[in-house]
Backbone:
């Protein structure tokens, strides 16, 4: 007998028929003798509808100027979406004769910080739920929500139901957290780019973290961090084809055969800014990145060339494409303090990354990447590396070509 | 400075524009220096949508047989409707610079019994809310819901938001409970039947109770009972024309001029059953009404004729028209025990009532009713009376005629 947490996203519970299908999957786990807690998102589209209402009503009457709704009220309104799904799934389970009840964030309770809209889970008190699970009752938990100090409803931010599920699995000391979604696992790269991409049986937490934050939108980054910290095995499965087996996100030690590279990730939403002839002296980085931080711009890769004359150098960095205008404005405002000669930007760039924990033990992995791209005539604009990742910035037009070439170069192509 | 509770029903908060209008009405009370708690229903249509989902998903898969959803889950799902409105109104109030926060049933808390779907309020703990009101913050309370033992969400049944509002007013010791709805008060009779109907300035709790239970659908009966017990003055006002003034539902002592008859109520949803030649002996009433009670039939008026020979008599009673078939079946099953000779029923009957606390002090009020109906050639089939009410059963076709004639006879016609 195992204790498992199953999580179903918005598309998996988009209508009553799909909720019935989820009930079937849950029943199967129960009939295998497992104790089951289920975490659900809102029905697809509901959260966006509620957010739209909140934003609309927050406007001052008679003027059509965007306004930010009070975060506590916003949370209380949008948390209702998961409340509905949780109740409906509990009813659907009872209809197929599975003992079940719903749990809202405040009922568990799932205690969070007071940062409404993107609260963090502080504590989950699992005693009452554990008692119910022990009696064979399925716990259907409203994802994405918790209770903040002062007994206010809080939400965890976009994709927060993944985090709810992993945190619950940790609190319940579950054997596994199964994340049911609309893809059947984590792939070596985006299957839309190459048909040779294949599903990974296992992926290490660290690798998944890099993949999640680099644009493979399977799991929310925070949920992977939490799984890693609490050592919760997470499995990504398809709601519509669970028999495919999915991908297990687990501890590095549980992966026997470690390839140098596990997967190729990419993200198109990049922009590059280069400051030409910046004074090469202490304090200049602060003069540039201070104003950017103040403007809420997330700087990613940074490269500074060697200065030829010891006095002036060029400095390049990347930002999310959506933040490019804001970034340029901040830099231009700070021009007197920075003292650059010229400013150029490029919104047509993309980032391609190779990821693999095996990299640590295999020298020359990066070299293969550079050689492969060079052979295809792709110019690398910026490079950044970590222990288990090498990322390069390239012109956006070459993304597919680069990903396919790297996929082959690292022997990831499916047989 | 007064402390007031304002309640807005589903049509008053049906969309964002109407919620903005409600915010305006609330702001007006706040700017008069009042402490304000607002109770809201779900947006019109939302509750029915959620109920539909619950009923649909409660069916066993593959069969289209109606099934009753688990009442606790049902409550948790449908309570989400008021949660959304409460949050949206709080945001709308903040947008017009009125300090405000929403309160869900469990947050107040509004403690109820565990009879999910039609729970009764046991206790409201107003301390925290009072502290907020004292600081000039408007409390926006989700109506219709509470928290049952075991920390489960409960609902109060159809129209329960009226009860929420009155109970809250009692707990807060509010000076008045204003019920905003789509009519501008309580009328002497249904204005669709006679244009001479006029709005009552005041009506006593006892009268309102009779009117509510007799088909004047302005206030939910339980809310009137609760107002009467706790002596909460309730005012019925139009959301869309509050300047009209509304009707105050209050203590009998607060009404100076007491007419013999205050209003004429009617209900068409009646059916009549007559058992002919029933044995006139002890125990026969129990033999008839026991099985009806077991079948869940609500018997209203009962008349037993004087028996001519001391052995057999005729017995007539009325039931809601929707329960007629069930009632007939129950009686036929019990035929051997009852021993009647024949059974006749009539679904084309209606009940017309005159109501007035002044009746107690004015003899001959009923006689005016009988005479008026006789003059119009309307046959009275059954009569039942209470201290402040006389009801008669008549053929349904004569309802409008009877109401108009009585309205004139009791000097209720507007000038």
Residues:
């Amino acid at each position: 007998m195992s204790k498992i947490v199953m999580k179903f996203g918005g598309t998996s519970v988009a209508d009553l028929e799909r909720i019935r299908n989820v009930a079937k999957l849950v029943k199967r786990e129960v009939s295998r003798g497992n104790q089951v807690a289920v975490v659900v998102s809102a029905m697809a589209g509901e959260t966006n509808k509620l957010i739209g209402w909140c934003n609309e009503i927050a406007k001052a009457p008679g003027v059509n100027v965007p306004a930010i709704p009070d975060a506590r009220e916003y949370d209380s309104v949008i948390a209702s979406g998961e409340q509905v799904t949780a109740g409906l799934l509990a009813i659907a389970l009872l209809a197929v004769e599975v003992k079940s009840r719903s749990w809202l964030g405040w009922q568990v309770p799932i205690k969070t910080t007071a940062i409404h809209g993107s609260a963090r889970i502080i504590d989950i008190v699992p005693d009452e739920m554990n008692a119910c699970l022990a009696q064979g009752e399925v716990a259907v938990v409203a994802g994405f929500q918790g209770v903040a100090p002062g007994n206010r409803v809080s939400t965890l931010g976009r994709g927060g139901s993944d985090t709810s599920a992993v945190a619950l699995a940790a609190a319940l000391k579950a054997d596994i957290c199964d994340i049911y979604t609309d893809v059947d696992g984590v792939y070596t790269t985006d299957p839309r780019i190459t048909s040779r991409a294949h599903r990974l049986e296992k992926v290490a937490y660290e690798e998944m973290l890099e993949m999640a934050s680099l644009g493979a939108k399977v799991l929310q980054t925070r949920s992977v961090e939490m799984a890693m910290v609490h050592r919760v095995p997470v499995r990504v499965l398809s709601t519509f084809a669970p028999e495919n087996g999915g991908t297990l996100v687990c501890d590095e030690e549980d992966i026997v055969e470690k390839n140098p590279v596990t997967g190729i990730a990419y993200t198109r939403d990049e922009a590059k800014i280069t400051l030409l002839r910046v004074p090469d002296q202490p304090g200049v980085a602060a003069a540039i990145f201070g104003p950017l931080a103040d403007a809420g711009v997330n700087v990613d890769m940074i490269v500074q060339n060697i200065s030829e004359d010891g006095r002036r150098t060029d400095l390049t960095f990347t930002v999310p494409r959506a933040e490019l205008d804001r970034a340029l404005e901040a830099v231009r405002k700070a021009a007197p303090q920075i003292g650059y000669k010229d400013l150029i930007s490029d919104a047509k760039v993309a980032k391609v990354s190779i990821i693999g924990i095996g990299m640590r033990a295999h020298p020359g992995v990066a070299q293969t990447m550079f050689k492969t791209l060079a052979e295809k005539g792709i110019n690398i604009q910026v490079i950044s590396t970590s222990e288990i990742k090498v990322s390069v910035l390239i012109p956006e037009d070459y993304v597919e070509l680069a990903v396919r070439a790297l996929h082959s170069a690292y022997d990831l192509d499916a047989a």
The first strand of chain A starts at residue 3 and ends at 8. Chain A touches chain B at residues 16, 19-20, 24, 50, 53-54, 56-61, 67, 69-70, 72-74, 76-77, 79-81, 83-84, 86-88, 90-92, 94-96, 101-102, 104, 106-107, 151-153 (CB under 8 Å).
